[in-house]
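Quick question about two entries, pasted in order.
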Amino acid sequence: MNRNVSIPRIGILGGGQLGRMFLQNALSYDARVCVLDPDPNAPCAKLASEFTCGSFNEFDTVLNFGRTVDVITVEIEHVNTEALEQLQKEGKQVFPQPHILRMIQDKGMQKEFYRNADLPSSDFKRVANNRELEALGDEWFPCFVKLCTSGYDGKGVTRISNRSQIHLAFDAPMVVEKLVSVQTEFAVIVSRHQDGATALFPAVDMEFHPEANLVEFLSSPSVLPTNVIEHANEIAMKLVQKLDFIGLLAIEFFLDKQGNILINEIAPRPHNSGHHTIEGNATSQFDQHFRSIAGWAPGDTHIIQAAVMLNLLGAPGFSGPVWYDGLAEASALPGVHIHLYGKQQTKPMRKMGHVTVTAATTIEAKEIARKVQSILTVKSR
């Protein structure tokens, strides 16, 4: 077998924890994976076949990096799409495709795409600044405002309960979304491969941290009714087909109190809502992403055991060199799988790792996950 044909040389823009877990999976195939990141101590730095310290926002840096590999992918959306478009013209494979990344970088463009493609999402308006937000009618309050660009992991999103709170908005281009009466939030991950084959991961339920706006608990399998999950799967499939997407796409949904399913956010890469698949599913999201961009067939996505995932966030009041208090004690609990991300510095609410707990049922797994949460704390030395 020609190794260069069967296993392409892969380049990743971004060297964070998503790239690290992708690398850990790719090493099983003896794949060569090169990484570009501006932080010399990025989580990927010591695992990559080649690590380039540089900006994934600079045209020449991305162009020169991309020319050294066969396939380029991302673990963060905020990259230089102009360079990726040039690499695509030069014959490099770029997944997800640059035009999709460009759209996803702008939440306003995302919302317009959903509307034009007849995909369900909450009502929205685009505004350029706080003055335009002030000019909206009373029917738009309360609302959520989201920065059109540069927001991630709950940053760049804030709730405006009434006009007196408009000063809390970003005074920059924003998407204004009407408040949705949310019953619950859940996620579906779908892969679409180079030959058009698709595969869905079973839906997962999400509970969010009230302060950080990050997923606190994720449970698999979902307890939602079959008809809700089937409808969400149909929306996910329609979305990747409309995008002509290649790669792995994570979709976060709202189920509102009237029973409507609405797309909330999408991510064109492995995602926090799929970390449990490493232990909980026959194929992990990282393996599936590798398969989709390498030209391989999809792997089996079925659930092999119930799983609950919790994020390990930097504790309030601690900044500096990281220390995991209670790590050994937490690891002794049954079904506990600890994943630390190799970040040397902690700060409040920073994602430092995650824990997946597997058990016979999600109820049992969540009980153990709460014990882990009470034992394991991310502090600084």
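Here is the second entry:
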Amino acid sequence: MKIFRITVAAAICMLAFSANAALFEDDEARRAILDLRQKVDVSQQRVTEELRKGDESNAQLRRSLLDLSSQIETLRRDMATLRGQNEQLTRSVTDMQRSQKEITQSMDDRLRKVEPGKVTVDGKEFLADPAEKLEFETALATLRKGDFAAAQASFLSFMKHYPQSGYKSATLFWLANAQYALRDYRSAIVNFRALVTADPEHLHAPDALLSLASCQVELKDAKSARKTLEELIKAYPQSEVVSAAKDRLSKLK
């Protein structure tokens, strides 16, 4: 019986020890689980914090991108405005240059109408007023049309308006030709002689003497005609009209 009791007591002790051991093991497991949970919580907090920081960084980055985009758009608008202003300025400068050119051209045209310009007539160059040039050319055009009376009047008017003109010798020559055509031989003689006397080197001086002799022939003044032809041959031996002068001279003898 005593042995039985000892055995039972031993069994109870073993059971108690086993229970204590199991209890001890459960506590360790709980502590391990608690530690693990704490670590997981800490990790989650860290992850959450990192995510929060990441979200804040992303939000800041988005704001920065939006600000940059807004600045770029503002710059684009400013550039478009500047481009428009530049185009307007270019048009304004072009208009100003065109206007200035037109004004300059207008002034040049006005000056050309009043300022003397160089002209060349019968191989001689001289200065003539635009109005002077126009009046002479108009008279000459009238002569060439065969209106000798009007041409005579025009040349006489020209000489009155411009007595010292560089056109004077040419005017005397063509005036005398108009008078010759009108059979006003005496007036023609006066003007042909005036040309030769005033400007013996003139291109038409030999022609003037030949025509002068023709006027004298028309007036039945053969003696004066011969004298004029001899003068022509002597003064202008190289002239193209010398052969005609010699022929006429031979017929007057």
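Reply: Residues 98 and 151 are 44 Å apart (CA to CA). The chain has a mean pLDDT of 85. Hope that helps.
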